[in-house]
Amino acid sequence: MNIQLTALHYVYLAFIVLIIAVMIRRRDTTIICVAGIMTIGLLATETLSGSVAGIFSSFIYATKELLSTIFIISIIVAMSRVLIRTGINGVMVTPVTRFIRSPQVAYWGIGLIMMVVSLFFWPSPAVALVGAVLLPVAVRVGLPPIGAAIAMNLFGHGIALSGDYIIQGAPKLTADAAGIPVTSVMTASIPLVIVMGTVSTLTAFWMLRKEMKSGSPVHSPNVISGTLSSEPSSSSEAVSTSLPANQPVQRQAMSPRLQKAFALLIPLLFAVDVILMFILKLQGGDATALIGGTAVVILIGVTLAAHRHAGPEETTNYLIEGFQFGFKVFGPVIPIAAFFYLGDAAITELFINPLPEGSHGIVNDLGVALAGLVPLNDTVGAITMTVTGAVTGMDGSGFSGISLVGSIASMFAGSADSAPVLTALGQVAAIWVGGGTLIPWALIPAAAICGVNPFELARRNLKPVLLGLTVTTIVAIFLI
């Protein structure tokens, strides 16, 4: 499989390195991403006007791709806002606090629940379900919002999605590309997923606990006020996920009887959603849509009960607040997402035939080129599969490059027994990097629900995930 790399590939790779370096230094990458988009546009169109127009077009493309996530986050935030103001949220989570009494239990409890829900319905809808109910409890017992976001990310978008044992979308893609049975990939992935999950979650927990014990404030830059403030968020701010810093929660009077009624009804409605997802086999966007629609119904019902005659106007106000929060959070993410989407399908949609014949997209071409630079043996193949999977995951999808990963795994496999292990390893690497643990715009659902900065969350996930990938690769070498 020979792919001719062009100037577009090398420029894209150079900007990836530059963006990663800037992110590690915790500086804003918007200008660099825009410069990257403009440079790629100039190479693709060979005109300055096409290059400049490509900036806006890429922003529109990224917004379309992220729109469903923006909407579900905005609606959940709007619903959470009215539940907090009416006191329903406090009544609803009181029974859960009997079991979650420490930050340690909160971290592992949220993580395990997130993993189980994500196995059946994928992480995006699971974040909305788990975060809306358990985040206030976790914060109340002392787990920082960033800790809850880390747990949801690593257990949901990491462990559950990389194995995907129930829905089986990921193993089917990789197995078909590698020309081996799906069951063989799933079986081979079990020890790899266990090792990856154990190392990453334990490392993240150890780092979080060490920081909490040291007495230093565990926080992330404040995304609520729209600035990268170094001030830690208060508990009430973290729970509401939409309150400006230092602004007290405004309470809306509601009778205790109504509070208890809604506190019972709301979890029941979400439980019905879970049952319907299972019966109707709703996944991904369909499952997210069901949860989003339910959240809107809850928002309207609670608002009308609390505000009565002013209910219609207040419903609109809550929705406005939710969408303001959603677009404020996604504002800094759209430029960087726009750049990385150019590594996949966006470049052929925005620019006319800029890539050579036989190209599978810039990112996938780079993955194939990397595979062609190393010798064909199992040990080097395992390392290459991890790196290739990670590279193909950098577009923030996690799934877009795993078919390529399966194809490359079949090339490196020295025997029939090693093919499933290499395929599973590439799948795990691609999804852990691109599925929502390291790429900022891919982990926005958890970051937004928890009210933390997605770039800070990606930075905190970096060491645990890289250590996990290293150990998992070593284990894979011994399994081959």
TrEMBL record:
Transmembrane region(s): 6-24, 31-60, 66-84, 105-121, 127-143, 150-168, 188-208, 261-281, 287-306, 318-342, 429-450, 462-479
Biased composition annotated in UniProt, kind: Low complexity: 225-245
Region (Disordered): 214-247
Keywords, ordered alphabetically: Membrane, Transmembrane, Transmembrane helix
Name this protein carries in UniProt: Transporter
Organism: Paenibacillus xylanexedens
